[in-house]
Amino acid sequence: MEGEMESSSGSNAVELQGSTADQQPKTGGWVAATLILGIELCERLSTMGIAVNLVTYLNETMNLSSATSANIVTNFLGTSFLLCLFGGFLADTFLGRYRVIAIFAPVQTIGTAMLAISTQVPQLRPPTCASQSRNECQQASSSQMVALYGSLYLIAIGTGGIKSSVSGFGSDQFDENNKREKAQMTLFFSRFFFLISLGTLTAVTLLVYVQDRVSRSWGYGICSVSMFIATLLFLMGTRRYRFKDSCGSPLIHILQVLVAATKKRKLQLPSNSDELFEDIQDVSTRIPHTDQFRCLDKAAVISKETETCKNIASNPWNLSSTTKVEEVKMMIRLLPIWATTIMFWTTYAQMITFSVEQATTLRRKFGHFEIPAASLTVFFVAAILVSLAAYDRLIIPFCKRWTGLPGLTNLQRIGLGLFLASLGMAAAAIAEAKRLSVAKFTAPNTTLPLSVYILIPQFLLIGSGEAFMYSGQLDFFITQSPKAMKTMSTGLFLTTLSMGFFFSSLIVSIVQKITTIGGGKGWVAEKINQGRLDCFYALLALLTFIDFWIYLVCAAWYKPQTTYEKNQEMVTDKVLVVSTMEEVLV
């Protein structure tokens, strides 16, 4: 579900002692990249192993309500992805990718260790409650919740730092000016994506089983030990890495254009755009001027003050080139697509919160084996792989044969993902209505005489939607962003996940407040069988469907802007994304 890809060159990289990497053939390559991939595998194992099963711990052990439990999980995940922007800023501006990973990996290790301890020590959780009414159970105290929050948000900080830099630092180990290493870089991204899926699959099967059948502390302890070993191996390989100097944050670049345009907001724009300032000599790398967002063009207006300077471009806070202004415009054009894809990840959040809680009430027997409730998320992985296979083997050949196109565009894939999400929420509402109808005639706190398999359609539909949404967003934000802002655009992509989780928390709180007016139990009740989660799912289905139509308008409005170099880069990036997906299928 997470990850970021960016083209990085090892051609200007150096090894630990400062020598250029091409003078030190023992640096970089697969040995160094493998150590970096180990960090990502363990990060994914830890984050997803905790997130997919956390709601049951909060609900059953900490005695928190369904709404509160779900919001804690979504806020934790939202913070993790939001902090990727902060980690990327530190890597680009101050520390570099290696130092960010080296600092934040131990932070996540400590966080998972604290979580393992908090689930083991009796004083850090409320006493066990056998009452059928949660109102009669003692909820976790403030000090117990502080210990839990402290460990969770240490993990979130670690995740944000690792995720923002690990793929970029891994690609630094290969020189894209070398044909052999450039091919290896593409394979690195393929293996990077594969390990994300492998980590998630292991988390929702093996790790969840250990948490449910052995103990939580053992499950979280495995996460901590694996992160410690991966961090230790990563640090031991320091002499083998290639390093690149920080090149400055794209956020600073954007601020410079905005500040310069604001300072000169009263100036008149020249009638001829050729009179705007441009300092890029290579015409093929310039971005042609556009009339959209013309207020930003004032950043490139040469005022009287700048004319008198010996070096006209000495202060980027006063004057920006036309190409830099157009790069900011390109980023602004991404925002409507960014905003309309947030809703998908709000629906995704329900699959690892309320849907897991639903599963705990149903029959989960498979022969003599009882499936852990959180392990139902394995259908996400299955749906992703099946959807990618269908796209690769059916949709792409169909498009090539009947339309002459290489496949669905990135915007079409995003739209298909949103549509499948709305269907998934509708299926979830129907399944929940059936589950509640059975719960009415079943004794409280007993397993319902209904198979957990009624939840599979919602997992499959939203899982299939994720396959198209994730690949479409990844392709869109990589290929439609300026070359100098790929890290920024990747971070922007990851914030759609963050905002989706945060919006889930917000909408749960709003719905709960409105539906409890007059003393009712609300749609998201203390116990799931006492609420109307079917109505909540139906609301999400409606909101997602409306968002789908708004997205179609935004997608029709969007017009890509490229230079000759950008077109070449887009072809390279599309090959990278397709190669990644094919490698996963293999």
Strand content: under 5%
Mean pLDDT over the residues: 80
* CATH topology (level 3) name of the largest domain: Growth Hormone, Chain: A
Which radius of gyration do the C-alpha atoms yield?
A: 25 Å
Unreliable stretches, pLDDT < 50, 5 or more residues?
1-10, 564-586
Largest sheet: 2 strands, parallel
Compressed to H and E, one letter per element, the order equals: HHHHHHHHHHHEEEHHEHHHH
Overall 3D geometry?
globular
Estimated structural class: mainly alpha
Secondary structure: number of strands:
4
**Number of self-contained structural domains:** 2
Distance between the termini: 19 Å
Structural commentary:
This protein has helices at residues 29-60, 66-95, 97-120, 142-171, 179-213, 216-236, 250-263, 304-307, 322-340, 342-351, 354-360, 378-402, 410-439, 456-479, 486-515, 533-557, 564-585; strands at residues 362-363, 365-366, 369-370, 448-451. The protein starts with 28 loop residues before the first helix and ends with a helix. The model is unreliable at 1-10 and 564-586 (pLDDT under 50). The chain folds into 2 domains: 1-248, Growth Hormone, Chain: A; 329-586, MFS general substrate transporter like domains (Growth Hormone, Chain: A, Up-down Bundle). β2 and β3 (369-370) form a beta hairpin. α5 runs antiparallel to α6 (216-236) and α10 packs antiparallel against α16. It contains 17 helices and 4 strands. It is mostly helical and 586 residues long. The strands form 2 sheets. It has a two-stranded parallel sheet with strand order 1-4. A two-stranded antiparallel sheet has the order 2-3.
